[in-house]
Each structure stands twice: as C-alpha cells, then as structure tokens.
Amino acid sequence: MIPLSSRRFERVGAHSHILGLGVRDGEPLLVADGFVGQIEARRAAWVVVQMIKQGKMAGRGILLAGPPGTGKTALAVAIARELGEDTPFVAISGSEIYSTELKKTEVLTRALRSAIGVRVREYRRVYEGMVKKLEVKFDRHPYNPWIQVPVEGSITLKTTNDERTFTIDGSIVAEMLEKGVNEGDIVWIDEETGRVHKVGRAQSAERRYDLSSSRLVELPKGPILKDKEFVRTLTLYELDLMQSRGSAIFSLLLGGMEEREISIEVRRSVDEAVKKWVDEERADLLPGVLFIDDVHMLDIEAFSFLSRAMESELAPILILASNRGFAKIRGTDYESPHGMPLDLLDRLLIIETRPYTKDEIREILKIRANEEKVELEDDALERLTEVGVEKSLRYAVQLLTPAKVLATQRKAQRVSVQDIETAADLFVSVKESAVHLKQYEEAFLK
Ligand SMILES: Nc1ncnc2c1ncn2[C@@H]1O[C@H](COP(=O)(O)OP(=O)(O)OP(=O)(O)O)[C@@H](O)[C@H]1O
Ligand SMILES: [Mg+2]
Question: Which of 2, 141, 305, 367 has the CA that lies 20 to 30 A from 257?
C-alpha cells in the first residue's frame, strides 16, 4: 500500500506524462496535460473532481470500466493530480490485499484510513523574533580537550515593538549553530521543548551574501513570547499508529509494528478524538480518495467489507477500476458484471472508457515517445501506430524502448521503421504468444 502523500507517483512510471485531466473551463481539450481523446470519460472525471472538492462525494464510489489499455489507470492518476497535494490519494491494486502477515480486512482498513486526512491546528508557546545579538560561550569538550563545544549563550530577539534578551543553554545554542542561525535571521524557539526553527532572513537586515537560499521575511509584530498556530495534516492511519505506539511502548522497542494488527479499541479512540477535535474546531477532516485498480482481484469478503466501510462516518471516496465484462466473483460461483457483487455496483457511478481510434493512438505514442526521449522517424511512428491498432496500445508503447536500443546500436539518432519491425519480431505481443503456446498444447495432446 502506498500512502501517496510521500511516494505519490512511484508506481506510475507508465503514466508520468499525465499531468491532469486537460480540462479548461469545464471542457476537455482534445489533447492537453498529456491526455488524448477519451473526452466523455474525462468530462465525467472532471465532474467527480469538482464533487470531491466541494465535499459532496464522501462515502460514494466511482467505477472506471473499459477494455485493457484504454486509460483507466491514467484517468485515476489525472484525478489525483487535479486534487492536489492536500487531498490524500491512496492507490492499491486488488491483489495487494493478499498478504501473509495481515488479514485482508486489515489491509483494506489501513488503505481506507490512509485516504482520510485530518488537518490539526495546534497552538504552541514560542519566542519569535529577529536575532539582534547572539553570543556563544565555548568550553572544552569533557572527553576531548581539542574540541570546543558550546556550553551556553545569550540571545537578543526583536520584533517591531518588543526586544528581550535571554540566556540559553548549550543544547539550544548547539541547535542554533547547526542550523546556521546568524544575527539578522528570524527564528522561533519552542518554549516547552527548546526546538529552534529558522524562518528566514529579515528584510531589513544587512545582506551577508549577494546570493543566498534564505527566504526574506518581514520582521514579526507584537510581543516576543506568543501563542503560534501550527497546522499539520495527518491521516487517520498515521494517528492509529501514533496512538497504538503510545499505548504499547514495547512494540516500538521490538519493532515490527507494521505487521501487527491495530486493535479496534485504538481505532475507536482515534475516531473519537478526531470527532472531538472537529467539534471543537481544532481540526478539519479531509476525505481523500482510495483507488483500487484491478478490482476483480478482490474477493467476496473484501467486497462486502468495502460496501460496509462506505457507509461509515469516516469514509473516503472510492474509485475502482475494472477491465472485465462479466466474471466470477472471487470466492463464489456467481458470475456478475465486472466480477463485482450487485449491491456494491449499485452504489457506484460508472465511467466508461472506450478503445482508441488510430489518430488517438498516434497522438498517445507521440507523447510517450517524447516522455521516454525516443526520437521517431515519421514512417516509424506510422508503423508503430499500426502496431497499436492491430495488437494493443500498451504493446506499441512497450516497443519504444527496445526500438531505441536497436537504433542506438546502429549508431542512429532516430528510430526507423526497421527498428520497429525488429523490436516487434524480438518481443511478441500477448495475442501472438498465446496463439503460439496454444499450437504447442494441441501438438502435445495428439
Ligand atoms: N487518453 C490517453 N492519453 C494519453 N495516454 C494514455 C491515454 N490512455 C492511455 N494512455 C497511456 O497508455 C498506457 C495504457 O493505459 P492504462 O494503463 O491507463 O490503461 P488501463 O485502462 O488502466 O488498462 P488495464 O485495464 O490493462 O489496467 C499508459 O501508459 C497510459 O498512461
Ligand atoms: Mg490499469
């Protein structure tokens, strides 16, 4: 499972060219943000993004349904990009729920809870101001007489209408030195922990360098000691982890926390705390998106768990993708549309993706070639487009890199028709490899 806040686009190298839905003033452009065609689906996805932004989607779901290689995963990536950094977006594949360490429902619960953000406002008492004067007293290191260590110091902080001088202990001095705090910098020091944060350099202060990475900031106003608001966004899953570590210190020391189940009590107490914060206006909820690709890989237990989860108060928006028409629901003998139970399907809005036309395939191949830094001769692009039409778009995209290797080998800048042909001979498509093996099977049976 990937909480996308930190490792957002690692798994989607194939979609690195997709920068958004390519919609301007509510209308999808034919080619924009790396997206080509698929206009109806993009328009629908754009409406979904607006609903999410307006908070009207929580606890609801979307199904992206269409044949392989028609851009379902690309659409989900585009939705994530449109939502921006603030809305949690978690992507898993249906097969990821089968782990040897964790129950399926636990994997799903973690994914669901990673997709709900809580923006917490916290007030801390801090000393904030511009460093007017910083004096440091050094002494010998207790074990190494050749090293000097800071033992104490004094600092004068200044705001527009306040100025105070404090004595500070060795550890705060050391942190200031480590962060390169100089006179003229604006800092704050946490009253309780003594943590130092360098904000930037005062606009009014003398420039120490012509060029510097320090941000220029205004001199703070008001008293030096003040209550400062801090805003942090955490997910429910992160809060679960913090809570369960807090209540069981041993698990932290022994490690292995990730593989242990989080108890229902922990989750319940986190939920209650979050609801209380929201009531007291100390926190906002940010329902994000849980995207489950290849949803037919889930089984009946997982599906019924998801249906229930969607009803709960703290539920993210569910986006599912499937390339199956009719399939057996895993864990049962029932066939159903997209391999999903009807009661779940009933709760979903369905967006369809359609196979591409030749022109669209050519356009997508151009964008991918550009993204992978592969230069194509005109007729090579034409040949590759035909391959895309005959075999599949994904197969044509995959031939780009081997064709480039072949071109480089014959010391050519650009990929030629011959390189495409050779690459297609070396690497067969799924259709061909399946037919090939079928012939062997028949030969064995005779
Ligand atoms: N309309 C499009 N514009 C630009 N690139 C696209 C478009 N549709 C698909 N692609 C790209 O083509 C490749 C295949 O598409 P994608 O993986 O999104 O298909 P899919 O519908 O998820 O297929 P599957 O059912 O096999 O998972 C990806 O690299 C994707 O980024
Ligand atoms: Mg896909």
Answer: 305
